[in-house]
Specification:
Helix 1 packs antiparallel against helix 2. This protein is mostly helical and 77 residues long. Helices cover 70% and strands 0% of the residues. The mean pLDDT is 94. The protein is built from three helices and no strands. The chain has one domain.
Length: 77
C-alpha cells in the first residue's frame, strides 16, 4: 500500500502538534510511573500507548498521510 498524501498543511500541522503533545505527555507519565509515584500495569500501558500514538501521529504529519482518511472516512481538517 502506497502512502499517498491525503492531508493538507493544516492537517499536517494539527497532527504534528498533537503528536508532540502526546509524546511529551507520555514521557512525563513514564517518568512519574518509573519513579514509583504511581504504580500499576495500567499506567505503564497508558504511558507506552501515549508515546506510540504520538510517534505515529508525528509520522503521519511528516508523511502527509492519515490512516483514517486512507480508510475512507472524512476528517474535519
Amino acid at each position: 500500500m502506497a502512502l499517498e498524501c491525503n492531508i493538507d498543511a493544516k492537517g499536517k500541522a494539527a497532527r504534528l502538534m498533537g503528536g508532540i503533545a502526546a509524546v511529551a505527555g507520555g514521557a512525563l507519565l513514564l517518568g512519574v510511573v518509573a519513579s514509583g509515584t504511581i504504580s500499576g500495569s495500567f499506567w505503564w500501558l497508558a504511558s507506552v500507548g501515549a508515546l506510540a500514538g504520538g510517534a505515529f501521529s508525528i509520522f503521519e504529519a511528516r508523511a502527509g498521510w492519515c490512516v483514517v482518511r486512507a480508510m475512507g472516512l472524512k476528517t474535519p481538517l
